[in-house]
Structure formats: structure tokens, C-alpha cells
Design goal:
The chain has 232 residues and is α+β, with helices and mostly antiparallel strands. It has four helices and eight strands. It has a domain of 132 residues.
């Protein structure tokens, strides 16, 4: 058997070891790690597009027709006589002729009875004041055209002494307001009555009237018992 020299064996071992090292280096050196992307990189969000609202269809506004100024047939524009003013539903402010007998009787009926102690007015409307049996006063407004009360009756405040005097004068009266008005206007020809007020005492009641003639006012005193009239 041939024996190998020791140096030859050593050289062969070194050669094998160097070859193995080179082989390992070649295998590991070709793998270059890929760069790592930072996990903190933030992706840019694509902007979101908002859909424009669909324009709604607007219904055109049709202007309302103005109310007609023409009155509807059958409408009554006049006063119904329930308040003051013309008071007769027809707008008559001067009926021409006034029946004061009807006016005073309407005032008495509204008060529930009594005696007229005051009468004031002109044309259609007359204020009638009535004294009851105890002297309590009640006031109403009467339309001469309608022949009825259009406002009232309303109570009038009076103290005890006034009530007593009213009751005494009314009890002693023999010429009522309607008759006294006729006496007063007869005393001044062509005149019309404006006011009539009962005064005096229970034993001598007296009417004081104001009448108008030709734009001038006159005062007429009428005796409440005899009816004698005197103008001043």
C-alpha cells in the first residue's frame, strides 16, 4: 500500500475548507434585503366628491286676487240701530219731523215705568232720562226714526236727597215732557227743541227748555202744573 505524505493531506483539507467557505459566502451574499417601508407612512385619501343636491321644482306663487270693493248684493252697509250714531239703519240724521210723544214713551218703557224729567237731542237721536217712583234715574237713547231705544237703559247715580227731590217733582207734575216741549216751541215760533229739564219743587215743578230758531237759542220756562210758557 502506498502511504500519503502528511503535507499532501493537509493541503487537500485546507483546499476543501476554503472551497466550502467560498461556496457559503456566495450563497449568502446574493440575498440583499429589500428596504423596509415605514409603517407610519400615511396614504393620502382620495378626496370624496359630494353629489350636488338636485334642485327641487318650485311651484310658482300665484298672487291672490284682491277683495272686490264692490259690495255683494243684499249687503246692508247701514247701522242696524243697535248703537249710537244714526241709530236707524238708514243713516238718517234728521228725520225732519220728530214725534216727541213716541220718544218719551220709549224712554219710559225702557226704564220700566216712571216720569221723564230730562230730554235732550236733535234730529234722530234723543237722550231720555226717567225718574222712577223712588226718584232713581234711568237713561236711554231713542231713535226718532225707528221709534225705539238704540242704547241703554243705563242707571244714573243720585244721592238720597236728589232721589227724594226727583220723586216729589214727578208726583206734583201735571204737564208731562211731551206737552211741555210743545208749549216751549209754541212760545218761540219756528223753533225746535234742544233740551228740556224738570226743576222746581214738588209743589211747583217747572220745566226749563232751550229752543233754537234761526240759529239763535232761546230759553223758555213752562209751568209744570198749569202749562203756562214764558220765553226769555
Amino acid at each position: 500500500m502506498t502511504r500519503r505524505h502528511p503535507s499532501t493531506a493537509l493541503t487537500a483539507a485546507i483546499t476543501v475548507g476554503v472551497g466550502a467557505a467560498l461556496f457559503l459566502t456566495a450563497c449568502s451574499g446574493g440575498d440583499t434585503p429589500a428596504p423596509t417601508r415605514s409603517a407610519t407612512a400615511t396614504a393620502t385619501a382620495e378626496p370624496t366628491r359630494t353629489a350636488s343636491p338636485t334642485p327641487s321644482q318650485t311651484t310658482p306663487v300665484v298672487p291672490s286676487s284682491p277683495a272686490s270693493a264692490t259690495p255683494t248684493p243684499g249687503d246692508d252697509d247701514g247701522d242696524d240701530g243697535s248703537g249710537q250714531g244714526a241709530g236707524n239703519g238708514g243713516g238718517v240724521t234728521d228725520p225732519g219731523t220728530v214725534d216727541l210723544g213716541v220718544v218719551t214713551q220709549q224712554g219710559i218703557a225702557a226704564a220700566g215705568g216712571g216720569t221723564v224729567v230730562s230730554l235732550t237731542g236733535s234730529g234722530d237721536l234723543w237722550t231720555v232720562v226717567v225718574a222712577g217712583p223712588d226718584g232713581t234715574l234711568t237713561q236711554s237713547v231713542v231713535s226718532a226714526t225707528l221709534g225705539r231705544v238704540t242704547s241703554g237703559p243705563f242707571p244714573k247715580d243720585s244721592d238720597a236727597a236728589t232721589k227724594t227731590a226727583n220723586a216729589a217733582r214727578a208726583a206734583g207734575l201735571r204737564v208731562d215732557a211731551d206737552a211741555a216741549a210743545a208749549k216751549a216751541t209754541a212760545a218761540v215760533p219756528g223753533s225746535t227743541l234742544a233740551t228740556l229739564q224738570l226743576g222746581g219743587s214738588g209743589s211747583a215743578p217747572t220745566w226749563t227748555a232751550t229752543v233754537s230758531a234761526g240759529g239763535a237759542s232761546r230759553t223758555v220756562t213752562v209751568d209744570g202744573v198749569t202749562g203756562a210758557a214764558r220765553a226769555s
